[in-house]
């Protein structure tokens, strides 16, 4: 079932793919695999990040992404994730940020495939949920053509059956994490060649994929899955609303972003009633009408109003009315 869900996934994105974001995305696709933000195994094991594991049952299938490089600690964090009910635990071997480099994990682990294999083996031994890896094609001066097959062979031998490859290097010196998502060139053909070399591995491609059409193109070429990050966040309706139909041949759960917004209202009511802030949810909904009429008014009303004390679902109704042009006066 997860193999099928992984045909399309929404990437792990720190500060973006929190539980509110995932709940919103799930309304638009019942099938796509959703990833959490990265959580470090150290933070989980020390207990400080326990609440980051919380998620809503509606989010399944949902994967927890861990960052770390200590096998025992990762095993313990994996167990915590499995106990919490995550469907998959993913190891981050792609994040280039300084903070992460200092802890010897993330993309720098592309230099240490044996450590990654040891971590993956410990995670696999720790629980019954599937363990996956998200990696780059290499870092710095590495030759991806040489290091990527070696890396994949080692994680495969450790028992990993599914990997996602962000099809560009991370340059660990001199580029910001943001630049590291755009500047190093993409090499999709290399990822496709890895599928030919490792036919038994489930391989998802990631990086710069901007639409569902593009995703379908990769699946048609023989890749097993496509992971979309920024495009899914900035234009969730464009990427997810038709995904169930186009990728899995199911009916789409909703036909328009307006319906997804309506469906968020009870969730927002619950969140605010429990003491949460409106903007914590609506900040992930700003792109709901991306490229559609009313998108600007929608963003403006929510951006300006959602931080105000006492803001609640009425503001979302007001913004929605501005988009649909219905009941603007009464809502205003
Ligand atoms: C705001 C932001 C935060 C990210 N955080 C993570 C993360 O926690 N773990 C991870 O593996 N990748 C992270 N990434 C990288 C994405 O998962 C993805 O690999 C990258 O954005 C390329 O895919 P895209 O071009 O479809 O966005 C992040 C990307 C963004 C934009």
Automatic annotation (TrEMBL):
<feature type="binding site">
    <location>
        <begin position="12"/>
        <end position="14"/>
    </location>
    <ligand>
        <name>FMN</name>
    </ligand>
</feature>
<dbReference type="GO" id="GO:0050660">
    <property type="term" value="F:flavin adenine dinucleotide binding"/>
</dbReference>
<feature type="binding site">
    <location>
        <begin position="229"/>
        <end position="230"/>
    </location>
    <ligand>
        <name>FMN</name>
    </ligand>
</feature>
<dbReference type="InterPro" id="IPR035587">
    <property type="entry name" value="DUS-like_FMN-bd"/>
</dbReference>
<feature type="active site" description="Proton donor">
    <location>
        <position position="95"/>
    </location>
</feature>
<keyword id="KW-0820">tRNA-binding</keyword>
<feature type="site" description="Interacts with tRNA">
    <location>
        <position position="92"/>
    </location>
</feature>
<feature type="site" description="Interacts with tRNA; defines subfamily-specific binding signature">
    <location>
        <position position="299"/>
    </location>
</feature>
<feature type="binding site">
    <location>
        <position position="166"/>
    </location>
    <ligand>
        <name>FMN</name>
    </ligand>
</feature>
<feature type="site" description="Interacts with tRNA; defines subfamily-specific binding signature">
    <location>
        <position position="178"/>
    </location>
</feature>
<keyword id="KW-0288">FMN</keyword>
<dbReference type="GO" id="GO:0102264">
    <property type="term" value="F:tRNA-dihydrouridine20 synthase activity"/>
</dbReference>
<comment type="similarity">
    <text>Belongs to the dus family.</text>
</comment>
<keyword id="KW-0819">tRNA processing</keyword>
<comment type="function">
    <text>Catalyzes the synthesis of 5,6-dihydrouridine (D), a modified base found in the D-loop of most tRNAs, via the reduction of the C5-C6 double bond in target uridines. Specifically modifies U20 and U20a in tRNAs.</text>
</comment>
<protein>
    <recommendedName>
        <fullName>tRNA-dihydrouridine(20/20a) synthase</fullName>
        <ecNumber>1.3.1.91</ecNumber>
    </recommendedName>
</protein>
<dbReference type="InterPro" id="IPR013785">
    <property type="entry name" value="Aldolase_TIM"/>
</dbReference>
<dbReference type="InterPro" id="IPR004653">
    <property type="entry name" value="DusA"/>
</dbReference>
<keyword id="KW-0560">Oxidoreductase</keyword>
<dbReference type="GO" id="GO:0010181">
    <property type="term" value="F:FMN binding"/>
</dbReference>
<keyword id="KW-0694">RNA-binding</keyword>
<feature type="binding site">
    <location>
        <position position="134"/>
    </location>
    <ligand>
        <name>FMN</name>
    </ligand>
</feature>
<keyword id="KW-0521">NADP</keyword>
<keyword id="KW-0547">Nucleotide-binding</keyword>
<feature type="site" description="Interacts with tRNA; defines subfamily-specific binding signature">
    <location>
        <position position="296"/>
    </location>
</feature>
<comment type="similarity">
    <text>Belongs to the Dus family. DusA subfamily.</text>
</comment>
<keyword id="KW-0285">Flavoprotein</keyword>
<dbReference type="GO" id="GO:0000049">
    <property type="term" value="F:tRNA binding"/>
</dbReference>
<dbReference type="GO" id="GO:0102266">
    <property type="term" value="F:tRNA-dihydrouridine20a synthase activity"/>
</dbReference>
<feature type="domain" description="DUS-like FMN-binding">
    <location>
        <begin position="10"/>
        <end position="319"/>
    </location>
</feature>
<feature type="binding site">
    <location>
        <begin position="206"/>
        <end position="208"/>
    </location>
    <ligand>
        <name>FMN</name>
    </ligand>
</feature>
<feature type="site" description="Interacts with tRNA">
    <location>
        <position position="181"/>
    </location>
</feature>
<feature type="binding site">
    <location>
        <position position="65"/>
    </location>
    <ligand>
        <name>FMN</name>
    </ligand>
</feature>
<dbReference type="InterPro" id="IPR001269">
    <property type="entry name" value="DUS_fam"/>
</dbReference>
<dbReference type="InterPro" id="IPR018517">
    <property type="entry name" value="tRNA_hU_synthase_CS"/>
</dbReference>
<dbReference type="Pfam" id="PF01207">
    <property type="entry name" value="Dus"/>
</dbReference>
